[in-house]
Amino acid sequence: MSPLLETKAVWQRFGGLVANSDVSIAVEPGEIVGLIGPNGAGKSTLFNLIAGVRPPTQGSIIFNGEDVTRLPAAERCRRGIARTFQVVKSFETMSVIDNVIVGALVRTTVMREARRKAHEVLEFCGLDARAEVPASDLIPSEKRRLEVARALATEPKLLLLDEVLTGLTAKEAEKGVELVRRVRASGVTVLMVEHVMEIVMPLVDRAIVLDLGKVLVEGKPADIVRDPKVISAYLGDRHAVGA
Ligand SMILES: Nc1ncnc2c1ncn2[C@@H]1O[C@H](COP(=O)(O)OP(=O)(O)OP(=O)(O)O)[C@@H](O)[C@H]1O
């Protein structure tokens, strides 16, 4: 099976700063992949390159067999890449349902159809009871789910989740984990940036660790958490196994 997403030798420079350096990763259809790494490792930069915020300085991004490197975010969304934002971007004064309808309108121009889709997605995300309230009335964990709902309403093949489980209570995070599992079960591939290793590791099939803009290591969560290079990158050399 060919990967759903590939980054090929991707570089992102900001002036003299190299935020992504020769990053080649692949995500297979049906996977949940975690993109992790210490602060400043280049996770958000890579995420933005995949979502289409900007083209990379160098390298290419292949999605579903097509080169999307130069395509804007809206066109990538039409092709099946949807994302959530670390800082929740919902339209605060609009109702929850209207926020989701904005996503659904990527696939249809018929309002009735968009509304039906939005209700379906809100139900899937456990937010249907909140459909008519303004987005500003939602508590933080509900806002995260609204972000997921808005992205799902665009009917993506690949869902990019940017720290949707960070900053939640244990119970909320558990519900979030369950939602991500259901998203995958519905046929959507997931690439997620997360800080909290304890939450993300039991959830993902595979983790890719970035450090200093490069892929440090990738593999199964059980191997990643024991890898001395990963321990060292997160905690500093003196904590590395065998150091
Ligand atoms: N638009 C930008 N202009 C200049 N430098 C940037 C820009 N975006 C990111 N950087 C720099 O690139 C490096 C990687 O940042 P990035 O936000 O991708 O890391 P991260 O792994 O997502 O970090 P965090 O976990 O703290 O969110 C950092 O040094 C950051 O300051």
Task: Explain what the structure shows.
The structure is a single chain. The protein has 243 residues and is an alpha/beta fold. The protein folds into 2 domains: 14-80 and 156-243, Rossmann fold (3-Layer(aba) Sandwich); 90-155. Helices cover 35% and strands 24% of the residues. It is built from 9 helices and 10 strands. The strands form 2 sheets. A 6-stranded mixed β-sheet has the order 6-7-8-3-9-10, sandwiched between helices. Strands 2-1-4-5 form a 4-stranded antiparallel β-sheet, with helices on one face. A hairpin with a 2-residue loop joins strand 4 and strand 5. The termini are far apart. Bound molecules: adenosine-5'-triphosphate (ATP). The site of adenosine-5'-triphosphate has 11 residues, from strand 2 and helix 1. This is Amino acid/amide ABC transporter ATP-binding protein 1 (HAAT family). InterPro entries: AAA+_ATPase (IPR003593), ABC_AA/LPS_Transport (IPR051120), ABC_transporter-like_ATP-bd (IPR003439), BCA_ABC_TP_C (IPR032823), P-loop_NTPase (IPR027417). Residues 5-237 form the ABC transporter domain.
The share of residues in extended strands comes to 15-25%
Overall shape: it is globular
Straight-line distance between termini = 40 Å
Order of helices and strands: EEEHEEHEHHHEHEHEEHH
- What is the number of independent domains? 2
Annotated CATH topology of the largest domain:
Rossmann fold
| Helix-residue proportion | 25-40%
Any idea what the CATH superfamily of the largest domain is called?
Answer: P-loop containing nucleotide triphosphate hydrolases
- Number of DSSP helical runs: 9
Largest sheet, in brief, is:
6 strands, mixed
Q: What is the residue-averaged pLDDT?
A: 92
